[in-house]
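Section 5: illustrative case.
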């Protein structure tokens, strides 16, 4: 579904901005969680055109032009279309992301958007700064994260399995001990 959006096959009517540059381009569109009715809960996503970037782990100093382009054009477009000043936006990545194709969230500061807490959100301005200081920061950094049990990552499955064992439910789900 991501590639359908990037290729202009689906959700064409929802796209706010399409920058077609293969290296620094992206598609900006409202997140499905936002109705578009209230600016106080504005929530958009920028999905990068590059298909070799899955998460912030893949970012290097070579990605700085991409990140600055998303920051500059994304916030400018949101200001022009919705009248929300860039200083009133929270722009961030999730780590771990809910899907592994690099995307950036734009949320109004007045909106308590999902995953804006410590252990999940990484501000775009911090990511840019980290890469300016060390071009390989995210390749080597320890990045603490929290995940919910329903996340698709294998660690979440491990957590579900451990919780089931603690509750006395075996792998079969019967709760019976193997004899």
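Designed sequence:
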């Amino acid at each position: 579904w991501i590639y359908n959006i990037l290729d202009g096959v689906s959700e064409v009517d929802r796209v706010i901005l399409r920058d077609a540059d293969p290296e620094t381009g992206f598609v900006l569109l409202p997140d499905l969680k936002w109705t578009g009715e209230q600016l106080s809960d504005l929530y958009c996503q920028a999905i990068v055109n590059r298909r070799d970037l899955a998460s912030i782990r893949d970012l290097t100093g070579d990605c700085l032009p991409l990140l600055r382009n998303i920051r500059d054009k994304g916030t400018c477009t949101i200001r022009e279309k919705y009248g929300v000043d860039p200083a009133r936006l929270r722009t961030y990545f999730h780590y771990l992301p809910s899907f592994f194709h690099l995307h950036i969230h734009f949320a109004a500061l007045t909106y308590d958007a999902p995953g804006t807490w410590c252990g999940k959100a990484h501000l775009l301005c911090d990511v840019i700064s980290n890469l300016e200081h060390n071009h390989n920061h995210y390749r080597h950094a320890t990045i603490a994260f929290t995940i919910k049990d329903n996340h698709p990552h294998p660690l979440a499955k491990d957590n579900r399995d451990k919780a089931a064992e603690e509750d006395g439910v075996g792998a079969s789900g019967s709760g019976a001990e193997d004899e």
